[in-house]
Write a structure and sequence with these properties.
Elements: H1 3-13, H2 15-18, E1 20-24, E2 30-32, H3 33-46, H4 56-65, H5 70-73, H6 83-98, H7 102-117, H8 121-140, H9 150-156, H10 159-162, H11 166-189
Helix pairs in contact: 3-4, 3-8, 4-7, 4-8, 6-7, 7-8, 8-11, 9-11
Length: about 190
Amino acid sequence: MNHIDFITFLNKIEKLKCTLRHSWTSSGRQESVAEHSWRLAVMAMLCNDEYPDIDIDKVIKMSLIHDFGEAITGDIPAFLKTNHDETKENEAVKYLISELPCGFRDELSSLFDEMNAMQTHEAKLFKALDNMEALISHNEAPLSTWLENEYTDNLTYGQENVLWSAWTTQLKEAIKEVSIRKITAETSQT
């Protein structure tokens, strides 16, 4: 990849640092898409010992590219996202990937297709962690940033995506316990 193309691509995905998500940080500011993707990649890296037969490098790459499209479309919270929004976001990811040199383009296109097909263990782990990162973020944020639906969504969101693995199922339960303690603490103060 020549230097100008390298810089141009980074300029395009830099928008992920500026694109805010629905989630808030523990300090009370909105989280960026880039921050979500970074921590998701860290989560995947930390799972390496739990999944010795899974290509964790592939899961890390999935984590880093999965929201590329939001540099173009912006972020739409999962509970508001329609099939049309999903299609637009997928097209934006494919557009950005198409601008990369052939080797990267082929690898990342294949990876993105694998993620969407949800047939491999790598894709399933990526999706489960993606959902769980959002819940962990919500638990870290002040309850004053939660919408009414999040009091139930934080208990159920992503449940179908963790069931393929005992470890992700247990992670979901641990996150749910934290959510319940957080909600209960607030209700007991009011």
